[in-house]
## 1
Amino acid sequence: MEEKTILSLPFVQGFIRLTDDAFRQGWHERNGGNLSYRLTPEEVSQAKPYFTQDGDFCPIGASTPNLAGEYFMVTGSGKYFRNVILEPQNNAAIIEIDQTGENYRIVWGLEQGGRPTSELPSHLMNHSVKKEVTNGAHRVILHSHITNLIALTFVLPLEDEVFTRELWEMATECPVVFPDGVGVVGWMVPGGHDIAVATSELMKKYDVAVWAHHGAFCSGPDFDTTFGLMHTVEKSAEILVKVLSMGGKRQTITTQNFRDLAKDFHVTLPERFLK
Ligand code: 2HA
Ligand code: ZN
């Protein structure tokens, strides 16, 4: 009989599959992007027998009290999405948050050394906000360098209203997939506390935060939904880049069309995006 390992657990398989799918989309050059997943209590019980490390706790660089005692699977800092499927144990880790919500330690993975993603403060502050506003439903945070969306941040005004409306107009399904819209963070130094605060502030309202000239963060309840959200946003951005490259819109989805769509699909679209 084949020996059972932590790698056979469904949440680990889901994590690996997402990193591979996202790499193949071209969103994760070199060590670009990062992924984190908040384990359920059942998954923690299933994974615990395979934990191999219990070193010292170190500072997260953010305070996330409502994440005290939680466990996350995360990609490693400087590690490539390309390599997660080949050697998950060296490119990803499971971390435990201490009882103050201010420190973490690695309990599994990064076996050849390393640290969790350089964007750990943003990931954990986003998880903290999303755990609260979704009553624990959201578990996945994905940061990707999605090409066409990045391109648009050089051309469109960096405003929530503009990005939301333009992305919605590029594909009829968009307002149904992200009815709350998207938020935009102007250019900031990545990796630190300030960009984490700005992003998590947007996550109170949106499931998508654009980082100007850098990429996007998406939040969701599971791997499929979160990957699908990033995929939909990037597809819409790609259409907009093509439309702009062909000389711009000659016709589009109108405000009234959005109102009709919202009614039939039972979604509420904020009025400020329907001007
Ligand atoms: O290289 O994407 O934002 C990892 C990153 C930093
Ligand atoms: Zn990045």
## 2
Amino acid sequence: MNQNPAPREFTTAAGIRAWVTAQRAGGSRIGFVPTMGFLHEGHLRLVDAARAVSDVVVMSIFVNPLQFGPTEDLARYPRDLSRDRSLAAGRGVDALFLPDVSVMYPPGSDTRVVPGPAADVWEGAARPGHFSGVLTVVAKLFHLVSPDVAVFGQKDAQQVALIRRMVRDLDWPVALVVAPTAREPDGLALSSRNTYLSPADRRDAVGLSAALRAAHDAWREGETDGRRLEAVARRALEVYPGVRPEYISAVEPDALAPAEIVGAGYLMLVAARVGSTRLIDNVVFGEGIP
Ligand code: PAF
């Protein structure tokens, strides 16, 4: 049975600000987990990571229209607020911030955060404007919640790299914690979009993590050439006929530029379509995939 009290809920900017201000005045360190809801174990581990370094944990749930392109899945993005509420309570979230679009983007609000060129490659090339939408909402949420620590998942490696740059470039007084990707037992990275996968897609979807694992194994055995590691991953992916890769690349961890020689801390990024679902995953060289 859930022993935790239900999280406080706020839907307005004034409400969340007043609560956070009171918590801070009482000496609490504020941890923050921004989400788009439809929570899964991956989000809940971000809560655990926030809890480990803060006294109170705020989670936001907001499906941010700015980060969806015109042909993307905003309308069908999965939502289940009552389930999210009970999962958040079960994991000890202290406050839920549940703004609607009119709170985040009142009529006439048209200022955007414009990321640098690291937003134009990989996911940014496939989804023009996506990272401006992500950084704009994260900037607004940081202003509203003013966290001491914010936690993001490694699964969205490019998002993490760009948020890290924004925080550094704009001198934001927030510490970032990056939590490892949570996975199914067979390796599939947890994602709200996994709910779109048919049973056959689900069997093929494991190909992404299998390909990353193959590349990581080759690296551990001494292969450090970026192109050759990509070839290892591509070959591993061929075993999964339903997976249509969009990119597979070994990159350095800051600007995510392709890496000639791959060292510890570098990444391999993969994006692929499985059926009608677009999935992404990555591995950090040196950390691997369990
Ligand atoms: O990673 C996500 O769920 C979203 O991109 C985020 C950071 C909550 C911004 O909408």
